[in-house]
Write a structure and sequence with these properties.
By secondary structure, the chain is of the alpha/beta class. It contains 9 helices and 9 strands.
Length: 227
């Protein structure tokens, strides 16, 4: 799975499928992201006792009939070469996650992303071939805090990338600077920025050299990258 642009175009990543166009993490949201031509489709993975792994951001957002991860992977397995960015929300389900990815033949097309380094370590132990992405920071409030000390960010984020042995740093756009991008690239890691729905901001991040942008509405890319 390609995660570095290496002089090529920005990677277009659909957030929770295409969360602005359909219920987030639904099969329809995944379908619309693919129809829009994204390079990678991102979705949330939540472990639930008695339900196993489903697509949901949190228990509070869990509907009565969430999409099972197995069903989502069965659908996405037929959509090559699109990449998968699985944002894992809780621990304790790593083996089930890895087995599902293997079962559908998606090891080489999947990145597991999380802010929990323990989850990434367990995924690495179970299946080193699955790509790993460290998510930072935990929420928008923390992003705003760290943005006030930009000189600290390259060192802090670089340390996280090294500890996670991550191929990608998936960062809130507020903490992305050119220095952060350069530090991650020096370590061999790509940078994805989340969640960006403003075409002007996409263009600024593109100019900084980020490798991919995560958006709720893939049409933002058409607004600035029309050929």
């Amino acid at each position: 799975m390609r995660v570095r642009r290496d002089g090529g175009p920005l990677l277009e990543i659909g957030h929770r499928g295409a969360a602005a166009l359909a219920p987030p993490n639904s099969l329809r949201a995944l379908e619309l992201a693919l129809e829009a031509g994204v390079d990678i489709v991102e979705f949330d993975v939540l472990g639930q006792p008695g339900r196993g792994l489903v697509l949901s951001h949190s228990s509070r957002e869990l509907g009565p009939d969430p999409l099972p991860l197995d069903d989502a992977l069965a659908f996405l397995a037929q959509q090559a070469p699109v990449g998968l960015l699985a944002d894992v929300k809780n621990s304790g389900y790593e083996r089930e996650l890895v087995e599902a990815i293997r079962r559908h033949g998606l090891v080489e097309r999947t990145l597991v992303s999380t802010m929990d380094l323990g989850i990434l370590g367990e995924v690495r132990r179970l299946e080193p071939g699955i790509g790993r992405s460290v998510t930072y920071p935990r929420n928008r409030a923390r992003a705003a805090t760290w943005r006030r000390v930009p000189r600290v960010l390259p060192r802090r984020i670089g340390a996280l990338v090294l500890r996670a042995e991550a191929a990608v740093a998936t960062l809130n756009y507020r903490v992305v600077t050119r220095s952060v991008v350069e530090r991650c690239h020096d370590l061999g890691a790509a940078v994805f920025a989340w969640t960006v729905n403003d075409p002007a901001l996409v263009a600024r991040l593109d100019a900084m050299g980020v490798d991919g942008v995560i958006t709720d509405d893939p049409s933002v890319f058409q607004a600035i990258f029309q050929t």
